[in-house]
């Protein structure tokens, strides 16, 4: 006996992602030093998820809306212009988040 494929749930619908982001970019000393700070918040709801079903049904699984994923946090970026002249510039950047 072999089981068939996966079927979608009859009430399956598209996922919904809600997000927002806010940040600030500051530059000082004639743009030789800068800092960028961002806050983000995201919620992905009704994500499709495959579940196993009894093989007696002839199927291996069913896809339903079940998962919710939440992400939020801060991101920082620092910029330092090590060399800045009319013809040449060299900027060092670092990020953390």
Describe the structure.
There is one protein chain. The protein is mostly beta strands. Helix content is 0%, strand content 70%. It is rod-shaped and about 75 Å long. Strands 1, 2, 3, 4 and 5 form a 5-stranded mixed β-sheet that branches. The chain has one domain. 0% of the residues are buried. The chain contains no helices and 5 strands. It has strands at 6-8, 16-28, 33-52, 61-84, 89-96. The protein starts with 5 loop residues before the first strand and ends with a strand.
Helices and strands, with pairings:
Blueprint: E1 6-8, E2 16-28, E3 33-52, E4 61-84, E5 89-96
Keyword list:
single chain; 97 residues; mainly beta; 5-stranded mixed beta sheet; 5 strands; rod-shaped
Q: Could you tell me how far the N terminus lies from the C terminus, measured between alpha carbons in angstroms?
A: 51 Å
- Give the oligomeric state: single chain
Give the helix tally: 0
What is the average per-residue confidence, as pLDDT, rounded to a whole number?
A: 90
Order of helices and strands: EEEEE
Number of strands: 5
Largest sheet: 5 strands, mixed
Estimated structural class:
mainly beta
Q: What is the overall shape? A: rod-shaped
Fraction of residues in helices? under 10%
The poorly predicted ranges are: none
Supply Rg.
Answer: 24 Å
The number of distinct structural domains comes to 1
Strand content: over 45%
């Amino acid at each position: 006996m072999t089981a068939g494929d996966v079927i979608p749930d009859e009430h399956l619908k598209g996922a919904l992602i809600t997000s927002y982001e806010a940040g600030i970019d500051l530059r000082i000393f004639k743009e030789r030093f800068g800092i960028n700070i961002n806050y983000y918040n995201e919620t992905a709801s009704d994500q499709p998820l495959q579940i196993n079903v009894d093989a007696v049904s002839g199927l291996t699984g069913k896809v339903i809306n079940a998962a919710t994923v939440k992400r939020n946090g801060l991101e920082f970026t620092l910029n330092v212009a090590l060399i800045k002249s009319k013809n040449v510039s060299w900027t060092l950047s670092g990020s953390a988040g």
